[in-house]
Amino acid sequence: MEERIEQLRNSAHTAGVYAKRVAESFDVSIEHDGNGFIISGDTKDVLMAKDAFVALDKLSNDSEIDGTDIDYLMNIAKDGRLEEFLKTSDEVFYMTPSGRAIKPRTLGQRLYVDSLKQSELVICCGPAGTGKTFLGVAMAVKALKSREVSRIILTRPAIEAGERLGFLPGDIEEKVNPYMRPIYDALSALLGQEMFERYYDKGVIEVSPLAFMRGRNLDDCFVLLDEAQTTTPEQMKMFLTRMGFSSKIVVTGDITQIDLPSDKTSGLKDAIRVLEGVKDIAICKLTSADVVRHALVQEIINAYEKAERKPESSKNSKATHSRSQRK
Q: Model's pTM, two decimal places?
């Protein structure tokens, strides 16, 4: 089967680069005859390749895209979800001072952002690189600048990789800063360094360890708890019950990176179990398909997930073999 594409937004050279990527992804042939591109191959592959090629041309012309975006587009085209994605691909919800457009880059991120808009309490878990923290902070900044809230509170449990605050040198601010650096970086990118420092100095933006949340009532603010997988159920309950009037709470974490003793339950996992199905609470689960970092990050996550499944399979296999021997 052959399909012809004539009207493209990009130059023939740029479109030719994308044509090569599409051809490799769908095992089709794409040639330029001087006027347009001709796609040939099996019927199903040609139709998917055509839709992906046209979508890639449109998206790259509307905004800057990278290799991760291209790979994601190819994958959702193969899954038959390209049309669903294109309906949401232009939804920019925040512009940084440098002119960077902040918007969901995957379907999972789209559902997450929608939940942040609609629900007062959102719990989002997902692997590294899925944008769960950055998008949460971006929505907090948007809410502050549109005066939906009067302040932002960002918090993390100050325990990682077995280390505790007391073992680090310096005063409390110096102890906390290394743990909060990813959030500082996000705020600086979203507000500009000068504006971030101004808000921080005035207390409009507060960044502090989770332990400092105890006993507080958090009214009229956007509160984000990051690295929530490292909380205990008791800490999580304490945090969630701080919620005040006219506030929004967002909890993010990665249940594959829990820095707790093996005999301790993760507060994030426990909260998902306890609160799933509760009205007005949104629980979002991002996957490796939503990774928007270097393409290798997705491969690393998939490799670890595969490796973690092997011991269980091996155990089941041994148990089956043992039962067969007893018989």
A: 0.76
